[in-house]
Design brief:
57% of the residues lie in helices and 14% in strands. By secondary structure, the chain is an alpha/beta fold.
Length: 195
Amino acid sequence: MLIILEGARGTGKSSVAYKLRQRLKHSTLINPTGFHEDGDEGLAKISNYYEGIFDLLYKWKARVSDYTTILDRFFPTEMVFSSLYKEYDFHQKFKSLCQLLPTLDDDIYIFFFTVSNKEVLKERLNRDKIQFGQVEESVEESLKQQDAYYKYINKLKEYIDWFKNGSMKIIEIDTAYLSQDDVINFVIRRIKRSE
């Protein structure tokens, strides 16, 4: 099983990913990250990086059964961040990775974390120890990222519909009024309901 958690900063996905890893037997947590390089060099580096992660996941699938991989963000995050902050165009790579995604596992769950309440987001970012003067700016950035996530998660849905792959699910969860335990329990219930 492959579980992918996506969402902007402050939505709670990293904390949930860590606790989910503790609750699910036979699981590994991976936190893919981007690079500082931009332009052609940055695009080549990030493309090779995700191709490497895909290769790793294919090898695990071939060698280990009944295993769960949890990804705290994946290539949709790169699409969001490159569209907002980079000069290179990740669209073609994003499209090809979307088309390959259903081949990674027989059961894939993408949980898209959102926060519908700006004040809750502000409180969470404050808790993350962002300097006081930068909290409002960070809230606006997170909301801008969340809008971009909606756009690219919808693009991903288009590709899933094209594949008509019933073993792949995208589930949005608004974490604004839920505790971490509520979110974790929701995730686990959704997985078990499909088994």
